[in-house]
Structures are given as structure tokens and as C-alpha cells.
Amino acid sequence: xGFLTLDGANYLLGLFGGTxxxxxxxxxxxxxxSRPGLTTHGVELEExxxxxxSRAQIAADSSGWDVDQGVLTNTLEIPFPIPTSLWxxxxxxxxxxxxxxxxxxxxxxxxxxxFTVNVAEQIFLPQGSLSLQMDLDSWQEVT
Length: 143
Known about the structure:
Helix content: under 10%
Radius of gyration: 15 Å
Strand content: 25-35%
Number of domains: 1
Distance between the termini: 33 Å
């Protein structure tokens, strides 16, 4: 299950408050290093460092997501480029607002079952593999 990051929370608050434009496309990053945290930014993500790697696009509208009991889940398979180099072991994922590796805001992040990305082995994150949920324990009024 993915978690909302600080940048993700600020993005959502900006949407609700009318101060943030809606992102049309999200980008899914594969993480081969340290687990992303609540305050991780796109420049800090440890993605495969090869020219043949790029983040995958996913629509930021209802065409790519389903909501059931407060959980948002991808409804489409998410393809990545066919690697010409060994990308290594992927342990985590992140959803960003930028296509560029090493940039953007990390909006959501999460764990996945470890898998190795080998040469010429195209990776697809299957339908239902990204689940996002917001757990709000309490609200505090700011005056």
C-alpha cells in the first residue's frame, strides 16, 4: 500500500484550495535504492541510472484509476521501456509529477515485492499493483 508524502499532501491541499493546478499526468518511478520517505523529493529517488530507463506515464484522471472504500488503485497495466542494461533489483515505487528522472515532487510512494529488471526484459506493473490510501488520524484547526 502506498503512502502520501508531504509534497503529495501539499499538492492535494493546493488543489482543494484552488492554489495548485491539476496535474494531467503522473509518472511512476522504479526505486532500486533506499525506501522513499515522507519528505523525499524527486532528486533524492534512487532510480536506475541508465540512459534506457525512464519513468512510466499514468493518467491523472478516472481512466487510469478506480476508487473502492477509500483506496485508489491503478486500473491499467503500466509499461516501462525495454532495458538494454541491467537495471537491478526494484524494491519500491514512487508517483511523481515529473517525467524527468531526478526531478519533480514525490506525491506517493510505496513498497513492492522485489524484482530484478534484466536486459531485454520489459517490465509492466500490473493492474491493481499501485494502491493509494490516505489515513487521517485527526484534523487540527489552524487559526
